[in-house]
Amino acid sequence: MQASTQQARATRFCIPAPVRYRVIGEEAWRVGDMVNVSRSGVLFQTFSPLLPAETCLEFILAFENLEVPGTNVRCVGRVVRCRAGPEGTTTLAATIDRYRFVRTEVVDSSEDAVGPDSEHRLGQSLRGAMPPTSRRRRDE
Question: How much is the average pLDDT of 95-111?
Fold first, then answer.
C-alpha cells in the first residue's frame, strides 16, 4: 500500500463575519459574508461577479463577534475556485498566503495590505478557538 502524499485538510471554523475584498491593483472594495475560515484559506459568499482562479486578492475579515472589538485580519491570497450560486450569489474560495491583524481605523488607510515581514500562520492565531464540532478545553 502506498503512503499518502496528501496533507490533512485544515480545520475549518464556521465564524460568520463580513468580508471586504478586492483584486490586487484595484481601488474598489467588494463585500461578502464569510462562510468558514482555516489556517490556509477562507470561503465566502458575495453578489459580485465571478473571478478567475489564481486571481490575486486582498481581503479583510472583520471578526466583530470575537472578544477583541475593532480587530480585523487583513490578508493577501489568491482565488482557488469561484462558482455561481442561486439568486445571483457567488461562492469564492481563496488561500490565505499572508495576513496581519489591524484595527478597524487602519482598514481604509493607504498603507500596504500585508508586507512580507508580517507573514504568519492563521492556525497559530486561532489556536485558542475551537472548531464548531469540538468541545475540548482550550488548554489541551
Answer: 73
Reported as a pLDDT band with limits 50, 70 and 90, residue 69 is: low
Which one has a higher pLDDT value, 64 or 125?
A: 64
pLDDT of residue 123: 36
- The count of domains in the chain is 1
Question: In this structure, is residue 53 part of a structural domain?
Answer: yes
Is 114 domain-assigned?
A: no
| Residue in this structure with the C-alpha cell 459580485, named with its chain if needed | 48
CA angle 122, 24, 11 (to 5 degrees): 20
What the block records as the C-alpha cell of 38 is 482555516
Q: What is the pTM of this model?
A: 0.69
4, part of any domain: no
Q: Which domain holds residue 99?
A: 9-59+75-107
The CA-atom distances, in angstroms, between 33 and each of 8, 61, 62, 85, 90 are: 26, 9, 10, 14, 11
CA distance 74 to 18: 12
**Is 66 inside a domain boundary?**
no
